[in-house]
Design goal:
The structure is a homotetramer. Chain A is of the alpha/beta class. Chain A has 13 helices and 13 strands. Among the domains of chain A are: 9-136, Rossmann fold (3-Layer(aba) Sandwich), CATH 3.40.50; 161-273 and 358-390, 2-Layer Sandwich (Dihydrodipicolinate Reductase, domain 2). Chain A has helices at 21-32, 47-56, 68-77, 94-102, 118-130, 145-155, 184-189, 192-195, 199-216, 309-312, 325-344, 359-377, 386-406, and strands at 9-15, 36-42, 84-88, 107-110, 135-136, 162-170, 220-228, 239-246, 250-257, 267-273, 276-281, 287-292, 297-301. In chain A, strands 7-8-9-6-10-11-12-13 form an eight-stranded mixed β-sheet. Chains in contact: A-B, A-C, A-D, B-C, B-D, C-D. Chains A and B meet through helix 1, strand 2 and helix 11 of A and helix 1, strand 2 and helix 11 of B.
């Protein structure tokens, strides 16, 4: 819905053309609160198609570009250039796409998995920092009100000491060999050059892993994994089971699948503590269940008056009215808009404890994919993710520095 | 999200200011597909507050009006005046508000219950027809993909001959005397001058009744009703039970409540036939269940490849991703936009079998409320709704005319 | 399982032969706690078949009778004659069957509806009283632990002041014309001479109505009803909708159906108060849900440590292990055994607040059926059940007596 | 319920005294179909208590023994000695208890885990074979009608080629340190001398593993496992996660827990194939859900006319009436009775494809526990269960023999 609101944020999109569901999802999410104006874009590799999409979206012809390089250059040069670029292409162009904007100081929303390897992901994180730009990664399940409530429950101690984490993102969308039928999504997601061999881990496993980190505040210290290919002839892995040891010695499990026949979506998390447990499922996102030590179950609905401010502020409808995936994207974009505006207007940062995922989350996700793949290659041997290695190295370095400084 | 799309429809809103949830819901729904530009409005009775809302919504100061009369007059006079006015005020100003626009040929979306009595509702319907304007009524539950699927199931005969209809919209939102606490919604909805004595029937009962008509294609031929006030001291009825006889001699029940303690939302319908039955619930809107004669239950999710085109075209996300109330409003506004654009561009009508509810639906809703109230006043005696009386009278008149013409 | 336990109660059965599910259900329930010995019976009208069933059940040939009259006479004459007779025949022989035992002072369990009219039901109640015999009626849904818990919740005030009762027993078992296929159950239940015209009300409606009385402690003061025949050509009514006014001016609804296509069983109750509401469904009997005024839902499972003694003592398994219909019957027979033994051993009565239903409940059920039928015959006019008329008459008589005595 | 049926099977019980839930469960199950007479027993180690229980159960004083050795000897010597002994003691006396009866040719039902190590389990299996006695192990979840239906679905090919198995038996019953409070069950189940260190794997893991074998017909070829102790200070492991590779290269997962806070029972299985998937949960045992490749869900209820004979014959109630744990035990005892009677009466075996679990299943369960423990001890290294080693050795030996015989 158009407004003359001069304060709207200006956005551009790379990808999201014909047949690209995720691009549409971003646009739906951006529109909900009317805080973005989509002013520029490259909507696919086919020039004509892209221009058609641009026109249908109301993007001025002069700002419908052929390549993201052109777009980055031109928009950086305009006084009214875009505030943020959304990179919603297949995985193999995330790095170059995001880089083009970040190095010009333009904020970026980049789809997950952030890039195809952790070195390039790390490079993007560094680039964002060096150019004082935001790099946001849309793990949007964390923007559901009841996921925020779950994270609040954990941090408020209602589960007590955490004991176990069980997360799965097991979908059946590609349980048949769709890639043989010309199905666009299936084609690139089963192409190892584009999606990587552990495709399903990057695509769905990173969502599950991020959700577990977001709700519990813990990270995997080591993983032991198996990758499988359920669909004969498929060139990538379409199923993964992972044992995790999270920090604080909390064990866990993760299951990612694109071939869990019959499952519609399949993201679900259960977290256990010594005083209670919680469960949340994406297919019924407006509810959160809590079970106490005795075994009584309590079901909370988004919008209940007694919920935390973290979830309350993300609900747009009255109690009992369902919200869904687009509202979660809307929440991501709303939190992001708060921060983009604060930066634009030189106000204090709005980032709070439970906020939108950034490049660091994207990097940790890619490091998780790499650790899972390495474990599988070693027949399930325990692997320490690079995120932990790096962190430990930093701590060691800081220690060394301190010791040196202190002369002791 | 702003676009320079010249083809966007121009919209104005009456009501929907501070504290008015339904106005926000309309705006969220309008934004989803980016086919409307909100260009004018009166956002409440407080002039300053209204101007503030207008500014925050990007409405130009010159088109933020003090009254809907001013707005109707001014917008009708502009060459680029609004295509459609949304009337989202409390019930007692629906009639005057809608009338102001319709009589100037401006299309109207008017909240339900359409007006406070069937005479004024009838007048609006006639006014719309006389001025060739659309009068749409947002019974948006009928815009859910799985409600459309349900209607399709019935018309395709999967239930066989219909035998029973059971619908309820029983919410617990006002099970406590909120009107004593200054709660805005509760205050006007329990004020008989604004909401009418059978308040809950107009507010929630009309939704339930419309849903049953929409899915089955049947209408109530007579009703027997009881109205109750569960909250002591409340000035309106907050609960209603109704026995219905639908056309084709199909019996049914309707329960409307704003005081069903603990219920979050409470809209639910079950339709039975001699070959199968279906159930749909608003709190889990992306599923539709079907039970066959033997007792096997099948659950369909929106987005399944095998569903009808009627539901498929209304789904914006992939299989298993939930959608909710705002998407249903979005669907209403999308269907409406199709028709508004067709009229603007002098193309053939887009209205199809299963489309958005109009003034006729609003009128039938008000006639239902009146019949329910009349039955209650007569201790549950059977009452024939005026919609049926009118229809029968028309048929009789046509018959008479025919006989006269035929000389027989 | 056989025991030499001299203290076992001796039982006999009338009905429950080949093809009679309910007889088997009684026997399963009786066996669970091993407190009954089945020592006599008439298992159907076919002499040979009956003898075969008796033999297979370990009933001595000399106590396998041809008629219940013979059985009543012979058992009454034995020193070790049966303690209790179970009458599990079709409706039209309940009265004569139960009468034969009661008038000889033998306790009786008689299936519902107790008899075909309230006069004969009243006669049985009087006969039981006159002969100091127990007349129990197996409305066994009231013997589920979580139904007891529900009743306790209400009497403990957790729902506050009751506002609404909604009960349904809407099954789809006879949604097809099974009576045309020789189906035994369907044949007699659709024969008006055996099951009565309001067949479904006697068969299922009385269960629903009893359940509502049991949980809330309230009775219907008046009813307005519609009866329907969904299956063309069927000779009895197979569907009923009833509006009720319970005592304390609590409104309610009841729906009974044997033709609710697709429903497997369909007994479900919701009770609302001004502080909370509860729901119980027979198809998930080990759970009870409670919703508070805010809208939070709590689910209790049978076996939870915090439940009341009323439900705890009826659970035979550990937390989370489901129990079902046979255990409910077992509970009925256990409570009954407590009382039968107490009487036999001349100990104080064990009957407690929440106990097994008796002839009074059976009578009230038949009076309910009659009131529903009368209302239907009067096109839904309000009818006061005879139970209320009788009660009011008793009160009036008592008043009159008092006034007379007092001379005032 | 006592009968004079001379054909009843005579049973004796070891264990199952005061406070022992499982003994009661066996007795409830045995009583349902009235095919067993409980004639002998040792109901606990306390002589007086045992005698009291015996008396209350109607066991003649002369057959209430002090020890199972006495019982085995005496019963073997009687002409009317017991047909079957139920061993329902804590784990550490399973072996000696079962052995005493088997070596005298008395059939045995022995609780799981069969014994404390696979050598003794193997010995029992051999002993049963040598003495032509039945050794049955009550993995009674496999006796639910809908579990049988699930197994039938798989063997009928409705899932296509199997791709994944996910099973969990994750209960929260011991999420608190109940053993510190004198809780009887918790005390011995957390005593490594009685329950073994991998206690939860033997107690609940073997149920889950058996269920997966029963439904799919597959066995684990190797396992990788982690054991955890969630409750600080507890002397055994109370949680286990296992990755499995079943035969036919089907991967799977198993989770066993007695400390999954808030879970009531927690047994649940999902099986995936390339054409469909199924799910069954013990907390809702009368339903089985099937999901097809497209994502449509079908829910079957026990008692539906279209189900297989395997499940139909195990249902005692009408459609929609729930059954539970006791009926599952009843089904186990009914299948067992069929076979015991066939042997007694020298009729052909009644054992069918889907029948009661035996000592082989018990042995495989113990071998599974050992493999899990070994993997945990090796930090999750893959371990081949002895069942597979043994089988491969047998195949190799047979091959060698064949080659030798053939001279090639």
């Amino acid at each position: 819905m158009s407004t003359q609101n001069a304060r709207q944020l200006s956005a551009g999109m790379v990808g999201g053309g014909i047949g690209a569901d995720i691009g549409k999802t971003h646009r739906f999410g951006m529109r909900l609160d009317d805080r973005y104006s989509l002013d520029a874009g490259v909507f696919g590799r086919d020039r004509e198609q892209s221009a058609g999409v641009a026109a249908s979206l109301g993007v001025a012809p002069g700002r419908a570009y052929d390549t993201y390089q052109q777009m980055a250059e031109a928009e950086a040069a305009r006084e009214d250039g875009i505030d943020v670029a959304i990179v919603a292409t297949p995985n193999d162009s995330h790095f170059e796409g995001a880089k083009a904007f970040l190095e010009r100081g333009i904020n970026v929303v980049c789809e997950k998995p952030l890039t195809q390897d952790s070195a390039t992901s790390r490079a993007l994180v560094d680039l964002a920092a060096a150019n004082d730009a935001i790099l946001a990664v849309p793990h949007c399940y964390s923007a559901y009100p009841m996921v925020r409530e779950a994270a609040r429950m954990v941090s408020d101690g209602r589960l007590g000491r955490l004991t176990f984490i069980d997360v799965e993102h097991a979908s059946g969308w590609a349980a048949a060999p769709l890639e043989l039928t010309g199905h666009k999504q299936a084609s690139w997601r089963t192409d190892p050059d584009v999606a990587g061999f552990p495709s399903v881990v990057g695509d769905l496993g990173t969502h599950g892993y991020h959700l577990s980190r977001y709700i519990t505040g813990l990270e995997a210290e080591r993983v032991s994994a198996q990758l499988h290919t359920f669909v004969p002839g498929r060139k990538v892995f379409d199923n993964a089971t992972v044992a995790l040891e999270y920090s604080d010695e909390v064990p866990g499990r993760l299951w990612a699948s694109m071939a869990a026949t019959g499952h519609n979506h399949g993201l679900r998390i259960r977290v256990f503590g010594d005083e209670g447990s919680l469960e949340w499922q994406h297919e019924d996102p407006h509810h959160l269940t809590y079970q106490d030590l005795e075994g009584t179950t309590t079901t909370y609905t988004h919008g209940l008056a007694s919920l935390s401010e973290d979830s309350a502020r993300l609900t747009r409808v009255g109690l009992g009215h369902p919200e869904g995936f687009l509202e979660a994207f809307g929440n991501f974009y709303r939190d992001l808009a708060d921060e983009l505006e604060a930066r634009r207007d030189a106000r204090p940062s709005t980032v709070r404890e439970l906020s939108f995922p950034t490049g660091i989350d994207g990097l940790i996700g890619v490091q998780f994919v790499e650790a899972v793949a390495a474990s599988h290659a070693a027949d399930g041997a325990w692997i320490v993710p690079a995120s932990v290695v790096d962190r430990d190295a930093e701590v060691a370095a800081a220690d060394a520095e301190l010791r040196e400084a202190g002369g002791s």
